[in-house]
Structure formats: C-alpha cells, structure tokens
Design a protein that fits this description.
Rossmann fold; binds NADP nicotinamide-adenine-dinucleotide phosphate; 6-phosphogluconate dehydrogenase C-terminal fold; about 300 residues; six-stranded parallel beta sheet; about 50% helix
Length: about 300
Amino acid sequence: MSVIYERVALIGLGLIASSMFWAMKRAGVAGEVTGYARSAETRRTAREIGLCDRVCESAREACEGADLVVLCVPVGVMGAVTAEIAPVLKPGATLSDVGSVKRAVIEAVSPHVPDGVHFIPTHPLAGTEQSGPTSGFAELFDNRWTIILPREDEDEAATRRLETFWQALGALTERMDADHHDLVLAVTSHTPHLIAYTMVGVADDLSRVTDSEVIKYSAAGFRDFTRIAASDPTMWRDVFLSNKDATLEILGRFTEELFALQRAIRKGDGDHLHAYFTRTRAIRRGIIEAGQDTDAPDFGRAPKGKRA
Ligand code: NAP
C-alpha cells in the first residue's frame, strides 16, 4: 500500500501507540514515525525495541512537521498534552486521539487546536489488559472497529484520509457522534470493567477468609474477570471520571436488573432465570456471527480434553 501520511507522531508509547506503529510498518502507510512518552524509561525501551523511527525528548519535537499526530495518552491528560504541542502543529495537519471516552476529550482538546489543524477524534475498539511499549502487536486492530468522530464542519477529505489510514491498519471503521459513543461504550466496555473490578475485589476479600481458595479453584468465569480487572489503573480511573454520566446511567439499569434476578432466585422463579439466560446467550451468538469473537470453548485457550 502507498504512504498515506508522510510524517506521523505518536504521543504516548503504550499498548495502542506501539500496536499502531507495528501495524503502520506492516501496511507501509507512513513515512517517518516519531514518538514521545513521558518517562525516560519508556523512551529508552522504545529505542531498544525499535518502536518508532525516531524517539524524541519532547512532545513538541516529535510533532514538529508531522502530517498526523495521534494522542495515545490517558484520557485525563489529553488537554494538557494538546496545549503543549499546539504551537508546533503545522497548518493542514490532522490531530487525532485514541481515548476511550470522547465527549470529555473533545472538550479538553478543542480549545487548544490551532486554526487550520483538523482535529478528528477516534477510538479503536481493540485492546488487551497489557500496557506499556512492549505490549503492542501489529494485528491488534485487525477486523476490529475503530470509531471515527468527525466534528461538525470537519473537512471530508481529512476525515476520509484518516479512515483509509485506520482501514490500512486492519480496522473496520464507522462514524459516530461523541455522546452516542460514550453511551454505547458505557454498556459494552466501561460498566463491564467496573463489574469485573468489583467481582475480583469481592473475591479478594473472600480469599482472606478461605485461605486463597479463590485463586486455587479459579475457573473460567472468574479467571475472565481477573483478566479484565488487571487492566491499567490510570487508564480506567480516567475513563470513569470522564464518562461519569453514561456509566452511572448504565450502572443504575444494571443494579435494577440485578435486583430482579436476586428476587427471582429468592422466590425460586426458574422461568424468569431461564428466559433471561436464553436472551443473553443469543447475544453471545450474535457477537460470534458478526466475527467479533471465536466460538471455540473457553475462547480457544485450553487444549482439547483439558478444559476447566
Ligand atoms: P498505556 O499502555 O498505559 O500507555 C500510555 C502511554 O502514555 C505511556 O507511554 C505513558 O508514558 C504515556 N503518557 C502518560 N501520560 C503522559 C503525558 N502526560 N505525556 C506524554 N506521555 C504520557 O496506555 P494504552 O492502553 O496505550 O492507552 C492509551 C490511550 O488509548 C488511552 O487514552 C486509552 O483510553 C485508549 N485506549 C486504550 C485501550 C486499551 O484497551 N488499552 C483501547 C482503546 C483505547 P510512560 O510510559 O512514560 O508513563
């Protein structure tokens, strides 16, 4: 494939930025890729593993002359980082971000974007519980959705270019507005993470009583919760603080449903439980049919005959 952006700058060099770098190299869609991360340690690791063509000592240095700048830092610092790099963003360049929350990021970043720079937020719906510069891999975005959120009056050609770029990284793309995005993500990602954190926290309290039986007998269901609950604490703190309204709305609904199931269990209402679980099973089937997950038992992790 031919080059889409001659110069790309990645600010923040963790899971998402490093996966973008390897995917860009695989696709051949970027000329030179520069990078910057806050700590000297991350910058040193990046240089050691060849992450970025040039690792810079400041965010400004990395962004100088860039055609595309992607903010890959936690949601809570997007505004401050934009204020820092704004003076060197070149006219006609595209500034983008990959934050998991959109309304709060748009509000924090927009005031600092210079005239003539296209600010087009995105959110790749792909990730793992790993973080840091060594956690990325080129296939992370393959066949996964990246949401593109052009603001009103955004230049269509700039938006199309960014869409083509993400498609070249392996992603499927869709456009959405920020409020809708934040509500959808509260349902599909943010609230499930909060529930996983809670479940693992409850089990941890219990394990003190039962002398680590929780770890010893941790079967598939709980193990999946622990994987999600191992996600980066800074990133997830920022997600909940920035997507407060939508997360609280979905948590309210979740609590109501939980009470209804609790009542069904207490009353021995098997019909209610069976109907509910039948409905949820169909949702899993829908996800598999859409090609967004595997139908192998235990997500294909366990060798045949050795499943927990
Ligand atoms: P990560 O692996 O924890 O990496 C974050 C990077 O940001 C690190 O390199 C960190 O530098 C750097 N950083 C933090 N504060 C900074 C600052 N003030 N200036 C410059 N660099 C700074 O995080 P990630 O998982 O890639 O997530 C990055 C963004 O993508 C977040 O906004 C997140 O919401 C979003 N996102 C994450 C996922 C996911 O599943 N992980 C999925 C989609 C979108 P140091 O290493 O020096 O601390």
